[in-house]
Specification:
Layout lengths: L3 E4 L9 H16 L3 E6 L9 H14 L5 E4 L4 H13 L3 E4 L3 H13 L15 H9 L5 E4 L5 E6 L3 E6 L7 E3 L8 H10 L4 E5 L3 H13 L6 E5 L2 E2 L15 H6 L4 H10 L12 H7 L10 E2 L2 H13 L3 H10 L5 H7 L8 H10 L11 H10 L9 H13 L3 H13 L7 H16 L2
Parallel strand pairs: 1-2, 2-3, 9-10, 11-12
Antiparallel strand pairs: 4-5, 5-8, 6-7
Helix pairs in contact: 1-9, 1-10, 3-6, 6-7, 9-11, 15-16
The structure holds glutamic acid.
Subcellular location: Cytoplasm
Keywords: Aminoacyl-tRNA synthetase, ATP-binding, Cytoplasm, Ligase, Nucleotide-binding, Protein biosynthesis
GO molecular function: ATP binding; glutamate-tRNA ligase activity; tRNA binding
Length: 442
């Protein structure tokens, strides 16, 4: 069987770290099995979905490194859903209901008072043709509910193991709103059947929907795919990510200069038995990550871990990989990159660090180091310079002044770079050359 997965965002906002998790877990699974990846825009909610958000999601996916084999938009597939709707009505599985929200609220309150679960009482099933005609004459438009079998629906979750969802304890779900628009449930099943989806990998907030959806698959005579529900990523405070709060969108991480691979690793390996550490590529993670490694507990995102990971990827980045990005920032030079990369947390930091080489910098000279630095200037070796120059220079200074350790190196560092931390001075010296050093020393 060849694997076909889908990731199905609703384009009602840009995607965040929590959405990137299923997007990538589906991608890893497809890559691992040589399968196909469908990007499905769940845009049946016309009031909240926009094309701009959909385009943004495509951009975010591309940035993360995901290349879908197929893109479908539910808004363009209504005819398929209408066909399924008609078949369910003919089979007696979809029935019109006329209760208003207020009436439903009252029913639920009454059930609670009687100590019963607030499940829809199926009153609409008892309506006669005359009743319906009368209600419609009053101007009521029906919404449509799926008639559940009401039984324990069992499935073997490829992440969570054996699951049972008892649809007897659920209200018949509304599949079509009173304005005729579809909720996500029916189109999702129809598309999964039509596109031959073999594995539905999504967040564990969908486990209970799975009971309903399996019943709909069966009612439509479709093949039920395998399901896998992963733990949800939460923010550092344990809260779910939300589009509405605009929290940690993928676009934000991109704008802040994070590495897509670091974001992808943090979004997926958090809350698994694999450590959040550098990988060479998404494919390398795909090879390693098995669904059995996804923890059943929570997955809490740690921003410090992402920063550390991002830094480690940069510290190991070859000049070949960095060069095009450096050139976009107006920078170049392999020696400069190799020297400065270990100071970076995010790629754009290189702009600031490169000034150590290109200048201008503001040398920092403590009054008590004036004489020492004047001597250092005088003892600066003649060119040509190489890796041994720093050693010659500081040995000479040590002999002349008796200074050693921090007292010897720190004034040189502060004068040459204007800061107390940074790259190895031995290599920086060679990159700077004698003239620039003379200019920086007081
Ligand atoms: N649009 C749904 C969501 O974002 C898709 C869920 C699913 O994968 O079936 O929650």
């Amino acid at each position: 069987m060849s694997v076909i997965v889908r990731w199905a965002p609703s384009p009602t906002g840009r995607i965040h770290l929590g959405n990137a998790r299923p997007a990538l877990l589906n991608w890893f699974f497809a890559r691992r099995h040589g399968g196909k990846y469908v990007l499905r825009m769940d845009d049946t909610d016309l009031a909240r979905s926009t094309r701009a958000f959909a385009d943004g999601i495509e951009e975010d996916l591309a940035w993360l490194g995901i290349v879908p084999d197929l893109l479908v938009r539910q808004s363009e597939r209504t005819a398929l859903y209408d066909g399924a709707r008609d078949r369910l009505i003919a089979a007696g599985r979809l029935y019109p209901c006329y209760e208003t929200e207020d009436e439903l609220d009252r029913k639920r309150a009454r059930a609670r008072l009687l100590g019963k679960p607030p499940i829809y009482d199926r009153a609409a099933l008892a309506l006669t043709d005359d009743d319906r005609a009368r209600l419609e004459a009053e101007g009521r438009k029906p919404h449509w509910r799926f008639k559940l079998d009401g039984r324990p629906v069992q499935f073997e979750d490829v992440i969570k193991g054996a699951q049972t969802v008892n649809t007897a304890s659920m209200s018949d779900p509304v599949l079509i709103r009173a304005d005729g628009s579809y909720l996500y449930t029916l189109p999702s099943v129809v598309d999964d059947i039509d596109l031959g989806i073999t594995h539905v990998i999504r967040g564990e907030d969908h486990v209970s929907n799975t009971g309903t959806q399996i019943e709909i698959f069966e009612a439509l005579g479709g093949t039920v795919p395998a399901f896998g529900h992963h733990n949800l990523l939460t923010d550092a405070a344990g809260q779910g990510f939300s589009k509405r709060l605009g929290s940690q969108s993928i676009a934000d991480f991109r704008a802040e200069g994070y590495e897509p691979l670091a974001v992808a690793i943090a979004a997926t390996l958090t809350g698994t038995s694999l450590s959040v550490e550098p990988y060479e590529s998404l494919d390398a993670i795909a090879e390693k990550l098995d669904f059995s490694m996804i923890s059943h507990g929570s997955a809490r995102f740690d921003p410090a871990e992402l920063n550390g990971l991002n830094a480690r990827l940069l510290h190991a980045m070859s000049y070949e990989d960095a060069a095009p990005r450096l050139s976009a920032l107006g920078l170049e030079g392999e020696a400069m990159w190799m020297l400065l990369r270990e100071n970076l947390t995010r790629f754009p930091d290189i702009v600031e660090w490169s000034r150590l080489v290109t200048g201008p910098i503001a040398p920092v000279v403590a009054p008590e180091d004036q004489d020492f630095l004047a001597l250092a200037k005088a003892l600066l070796p003649p060119e040509p310079w190489d890796d041994t120059t720093w050693g010659q220079w500081t040995d000479a200074l040590k002999t002349a002044t008796g200074r050693k350790g921090k007292a010897l190196f720190m004034p040189l560092r502060m004068a040459l770079t204007g800061r107390h931390d940074g790259p190895e001075l031995k290599s920086l010296l060679v990159l700077l050359g004698r003239k620039a050093c003379l200019d920086r020393l007081p």
